[in-house]
């Protein structure tokens, strides 16, 4: 027993003390976490109960408040209905009084309408009488103006026919002059185009021939130099490097000259293409000019057709007017004969006077017909 007590009272080391302290801390932390969990669960349960109780109390309060509001609203509606019934009776009484006053006004308005209708009909009768007299005066003035217009029509017809013939002669002269100008301009443009074409063709042939001769001379010169170099190479092997260098330089120069000549040839070909394009442009311009002249010709022809159509239309109108005038003259002859018969019967003149008077009137009317039936 004394040995065990000694062992228990032995002091612990630092590591063991640290371990014990850490174990105590862990146990305390676990206890604190458990307490926090229990507390949070308790608070959640309490919060849920409070929410349930608050919702139930709110529902009870709302139901009681609704009943109170319904009672108050019914009282207000009863009061409004009583007020509206009183106002409605008052309005009905006002409407009845208005209807009675309107009935009296309507009877008075009917009496006034009947009086106004009688006065209106009287004024319409007066206006009709005035209109009839005015129509008679207008008919007389119409007959006078008709005679004046027939005279003016004859004079205007003669002047229009003369002017139309003059304009036709003028347009024919203009058409002939335009056609002659068109032929001359077309011939000149063709000659100019042919001369330009020949000049360009000759110039291109001369330039090609000159370039061909120049290239042949350069090729012969280069071939001669190449033969001399070969001879020098076979004769003197020591001067081989110097001759090779000189030949290399000459070859480069000749290649540059060939490139320059090729560029010149390319430029000449480009100029030939440009000149061909210009020739095509000139041909298109000539075609456009020809089309413009043709359009002018067609416009002049269209104007001539319009003038001819107007002339034919004027002739048709004049013929229709002449037919109308002949019919009216025949009707007037018949009316005059009837009048003469009545006059001779009433006055008791002799048959000879009657026949002479008829012959004179017929001859006068035939002269009028002959004047009207003159050719347009």
Automatic annotation (TrEMBL):
The keyword Zinc-finger does not apply. Keywords: Cell projection, Cilium, Coiled coil, Cytoplasm, Cytoskeleton, Flagellum. InterPro entries: DRC1/2_N, DRC1/DRC2. Residues 25-124 form the Dynein regulatory complex protein 1/2 N-terminal domain. Pfam families: NYD-SP28. It comes from the Eukaryota. GO terms for biological process: axonemal dynein complex assembly; cilium-dependent cell motility; regulation of cilium movement. The keyword Coiled coil applies. It is found in: Cytoplasm, Cytoskeleton, Flagellum axoneme; Cytoplasm, Cytoskeleton, Flagellum basal body. GO terms for cellular component: axonemal dynein complex. Belongs to the DRC2 family. Component of the nexin-dynein regulatory complex (N-DRC), a key regulator of ciliary/flagellar motility which maintains the alignment and integrity of the distal axoneme and regulates microtubule sliding in motile axonemes. Plays a critical role in the assembly of N-DRC and also stabilizes the assembly of multiple inner dynein arms and radial spokes. Coassembles with DRC1 to form a central scaffold needed for assembly of the N-DRC and its attachment to the outer doublet microtubules. Component of the nexin-dynein regulatory complex (N-DRC). Interacts with DRC1. This is Dynein regulatory complex subunit 2. It comes from Lynx pardinus.
């Amino acid at each position: 027993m004394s040995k065990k007590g000694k062992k228990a009272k032995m002091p612990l080391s630092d590591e063991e003390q640290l371990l014990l302290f850490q174990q105590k801390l862990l146990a305390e932390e676990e206890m604190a976490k458990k307490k926090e969990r229990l507390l949070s669960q308790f608070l959640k349960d309490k919060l849920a109960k409070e929410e349930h109780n608050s919702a139930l109390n709110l529902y009870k309060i709302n139901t009681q408040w609704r009943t109170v509001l319904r009672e108050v609203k019914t009282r207000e509606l009863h009061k409004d209905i009583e007020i509206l019934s009183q106002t409605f009776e008052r309005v009905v009484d006002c409407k009845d009084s208005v209807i009675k006053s309107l009935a009296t006004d309507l009877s008075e308005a009917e009496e006034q309408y009947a009086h106004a209708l009688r006065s209106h009909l009287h004024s319409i009768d007066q206006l009709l009488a005035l209109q009839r007299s005015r129509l008679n005066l207008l008919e007389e003035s119409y007959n006078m103006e008709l005679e004046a217009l027939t005279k003016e029509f004859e004079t205007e017809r003669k002047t229009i026919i003369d002017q139309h013939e003059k304009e036709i002669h003028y347009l024919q002269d203009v058409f002939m002059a335009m056609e002659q100008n068109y032929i001359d301009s077309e011939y000149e443009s063709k000659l100019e185009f042919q001369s330009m074409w020949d000049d360009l063709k000759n110039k291109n042939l001369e330039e090609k021939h000159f370039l061909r001769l120049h290239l042949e001379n350069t090729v012969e010169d280069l071939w001669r130099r190449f033969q001399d170099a070969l001879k020098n190479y076979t004769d003197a092997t020591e001067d081989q490097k110097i001759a090779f260098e000189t030949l290399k330089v000459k070859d480069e120069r000749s290649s540059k000259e060939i490139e320059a000549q090729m560029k010149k040839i390319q430029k000449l070909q480009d100029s030939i293409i440009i000149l061909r394009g210009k020739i095509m442009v000139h041909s298109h311009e000539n075609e456009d000019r020809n089309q413009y002249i043709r359009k002018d010709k067609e416009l002049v022809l269209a104007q001539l057709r319009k003038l001819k159509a107007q002339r034919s239309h004027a002739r048709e109108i004049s013929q229709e007017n002449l037919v109308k005038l002949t019919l009216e003259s025949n009707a007037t002859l018949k009316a005059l004969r009837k009048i003469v018969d009545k006059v001779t019967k009433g006055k008791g003149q002799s048959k000879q006077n009657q026949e002479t008077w008829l012959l004179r009137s017929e001859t006068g009317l035939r002269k009028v017909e002959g004047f009207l039936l003159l050719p347009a």
